[in-house]
Amino acid sequence: MELRDYIRILHKNWILILALLVLGLAGGAGYAALQAPKYVASTQLYVSVRTEGAATGDLVQGTTFARQMVTSYVDVINTALVLDPVIDELGLDTTAGKLAPQVSASAPLNTVLIDISVTDGDPEQAAVIANAVAGSFTDVVQNTLEQPASEDGASPVLVTVTEPAVAPTAAASPNVRMLIALGGLLGLAFGIGIAMLRTVLDTRIHTLHDLEEITDRPMLGGIAFDPEAQKRPLIVHADPRSPRAESFRSLRTNLQFLDVEGGGRVFVVSSAGPGEGKSTTTANLAIALAETGARVALVDGDLRLPRIADYMGLEGGVGLTDVLIGRVDVADALQKWGKNELFVLTSGRVPPNPSELLGSAAMNQVLQPLGEYFDYVLIDAPPLLLVTDAAVLGKKTRGVILVAASGKTKKQELAGAVRTLATAGVDLLGTIVTMLPTKGPDSYGYGSYTYGSTHTTEQAEPELSQAQAKPKRRTTAKA
């Protein structure tokens, strides 16, 4: 992925990332609030060797000896030999093994100093224990570990308290700021990780880049998502100045310049699966083409689940199936729609053998005159992955235009549809992306802007009455 892909992922999942960041900060603060405060009191000891009246060489040797012994003395401080007297002196209700984790000792490198620290929940208690440990250690070193040479003599090692422990004024732990920052960092990392995982596991079509991974055929247009598409499917007619209607006009322009190597402009519009907007796209594209003055035939080739008659508000009792079985002529079955040269051939009654009818010689006899008379013939076909009807029709026409819904069509489904067309030897002329979001990282600006005022049909052009939208069954078109 490129840098812009990572930016798009962060932009798309910023709410999730922000929520987990806040949750991490709150978790760190909550964990810090649950921790009991701990106080640390420290004392420092100085270890030396008695060298009264000694020469300089003896002083050097004594200092070297003290440095060597300090390391061993540090390990002695946490033993029962030192801690048991402290427990007895202070009357603590504990043992040396339990007290040892509270006591820590260290010796700075190349020094004869020993630092003793005691951690406790009570600052006063911490200071008392630290001073008691220093006193007990001094007694153990001078009277047990380094015993005097004689009964009235002094120990050769002298331990001096250079800095007694005092009660600390501030708790050493928990470190609230550090815990909050750590929680926020973990939450941020977790949020970004989930965002990346969602992107990797999401196999749906979202962007033009997703299409380019599957096919090199051009994208003819992008149709913006409209939550009211079910209420007003014919947006080009219902609201001709809306941004979504303009996207169909852009699709119309791209289709007009599509190189089909001459011949009739007979196109099949299909999709990989159902519910991707192929029927509404075909109907609106037909209306947009008719607005230019072109003669357009809209054929409902979905003989299994026809939608065109409902969308166009036409009677669908007589249609393509009746023409294919020879009951009526194609000229009699065509119904004029609207004020322009748009004629609709509905599907008719649902037959038991749709694929056989669409692949028959009778279908050739229907498409040939339609292609000769009309400038554009758009055939709405069933989904490619469910039935073979679209591939059968594609062999009889210039090719197939695939519709894919942003955020719904899966990449493997679209790739399967492309393979189906390639296996059948059908040309894939291009793709149309529907349901594109108008905002966000996947929008690409489709439907975001319009030029001039956006008026409804009532403001711009009165809607056709039912009588105008439903023309006579017999027309003057001679297909």
From TrEMBL:
Question: Where do Basic residues bias regions lie?
Answer: 470-479
Which cellular components does GO assign to this protein?
Answer: plasma membrane
Q: What class of enzyme is it?
A: transferase
Q: Which residues cross the membrane?
A: 178-197
Please give the chief subcellular localization of this protein. membrane
Q: Which residues form the signal peptide?
A: none
Query: Which catalysed reactions does the entry list for this protein?
Result: L-tyrosyl-[protein] + ATP = O-phospho-L-tyrosyl-[protein] + ADP + H(+)
Q: Where is this region: Disordered?
A: 450-479
InterPro entries membership: Bact_polysacc_biosynth/exp, LPS_length_determ_N, P-loop_NTPase, Wzc-like_C, YlxH/NBP35
Under which EC number(s) is this enzyme classified?
2.7.10.2
A single Gene Ontology MF term assigned here is: non-membrane spanning protein tyrosine kinase activity
Q: Which family does it belong to?
A: Belongs to the CpsD/CapB family. Belongs to the CpsC/CapA family.
- The name of this protein is non-specific protein-tyrosine kinase
Q: Which organism is it from?
A: Microbacterium esteraromaticum
